[in-house]
Amino acid sequence: MAGVFRNILYMTPGFAAGTLLFVLLLRPRRRRMRARGLESSPLRETAGGLFWMFAGGMAAITLAPGPSWLFDWIYFSLHGQAEQVFAAYGIFGGYVVPLEHRVNLIPFAQGDRLVNIVGNVVMFLPFGFFAALLWRGWNGRRAALAGLGITCCIECWQILAGRCFDVDDIILNTLGVFGGYLLWRMLKRLAPRFARKFHVMDTLELVEPAMEYQEQVMAFKAEVLAQGGGFEGCAGLEDADAYEEWLDFRGREKRKGWIPSHTWLTVRRSDGRVVGMINYRPSPLPDFVLRYGGHIGYSIRPSERRKGYAKEQLRLTLEKCRAAGEERVLLTCDHQGNPGAERTILANGGVLEDEVEDTPGLGSSGRICRYWIAIT
Q: Which of 75-79, 110-114, 333-337 reaches the highest mean pLDDT?
């Protein structure tokens, strides 16, 4: 434990420097992300700050020419042995080992103790873990190559800084980075929804349907039909033979006797892709819609599901409902037949009022859950 405390003490300036650098770069980085149509959750930013702090601490302990005599003095003073610092260190520099004693190129020839082996692996686990946590496209190959590159650079620098080059450190540290990646894979498998919270989120916006989206909307329809899914919140898209026919919302409402509603396309800002569709029916609602349908219905493109888009799409629509003067809105979902819809509603503050029998056969379970979301 004394060795762990001593290492943490040496890493303290790096912790501070890494945290400061993260804070200074936070605003410019967010501006660049917004310009690309991306955003980062508070949870992801917290993880990023911890990673920068850890990286700064590791730089302090691995790249410095040697432990600072001041920190050694603090450590040994706490143990009543301050005179040992000046016996081994000069005030203006660290003790430098001769070159012939500073290079080891034979793996595990020195018979490292188990604690040293485990320590060299564990201290590099965060590099692989946080990299996979924060960056898309991170895989085992990249983790292994990054670990090898980082540790080789560290060991080569330590030769120039008067410290030791040890091939054992390269092997063990690389294993540590790769092990961190495996920990991420384990987290992703055991808690996939929690793991997705750390990824960059694409910025979404609700736009009025227009002719410029004709090709995308019809492709959206074809994709849903191919998946055998429903068209909730799509304003009758499944029955429209042509895009121009679907765009005639008011005419279709009048012909079919539907209540007036507003339909928006959910567009991803980074590439302009239509990822979802949502429909809002203002209050007051007819008795049938109030019992089985609710104010809002929505769909996400099958190829864009499980990315958090439904939650954000509903949040954006609730803002429009608030602007329209709604105090609360009703959403319904099939009991046990659509757990994703239920999670989306709950994530936006939905409170279950009751379950009703699905008399019209709108779902598959025979029961419909009715949730209210307060938006005042």
A: 333-337
**Is a pLDDT exceeding 70 seen at residue 92?**
no
Q: Rounded distance, CA 119 to CA 324, Å?
A: 59
Q: Please, which residues have CB within 8 angstroms of residue 20's CB and are 6 or more apart in sequence?
A: none
In total, how many domains does the chain have? Answer: 2
List, for residues 252-269, the tens digit of each pLDDT value.
888 888 889 999 999 999
Residues 181 and 224 in one domain: no
d(CA 21, CA 39) in angstroms, rounded, equals 20
The answer to whether residues 157 and 289 belong to one domain is: no
Residues 240 and 342 in one domain: yes
Task: Identify the helix (H) or strand (E) that includes residue 224.
Answer: helix 214-227
Residues 166 and 283 in one domain: no
Residue 331 clears pLDDT 90, i.e. is over it: yes
Beta carbons within 8 Å of 251's beta carbon, 6+ residues apart: none
46 and 161 both lie in a single domain? yes
Do 96 and 32 share a structural domain? Answer: yes
Q: How many CB atoms lie within 10 A of CB 239?
A: 12
User: How many residues comprise the chain?
Assistant: 376
Say whether the peptide bond before residue 284 is cis (omega within 30 degrees of 0). yes
3-state secondary structure 226-271: HHCCCCCCCCCHHHCCCHHHHHCHHHHHHHHCCCCCEEEEEEECCC
Tell me the C-alpha distance between 345 and 361, whole Å: 21
205 token code pair: 């916006």
How many Cα atoms occupy the beta-carbon half-sphere of 278 within 13 Å?
Answer: 26
CB contact at 8 A, 295 and 269? no
Q: For the segment 99-113, what is each residue's pLDDT rounded down to a tens digit?
A: 555 687 888 776 667
Specify the pLDDT at position 79: 66
Provide the residue range defining the domain that includes 285. Answer: 203-374
Residues 141 and 117 in one domain: yes
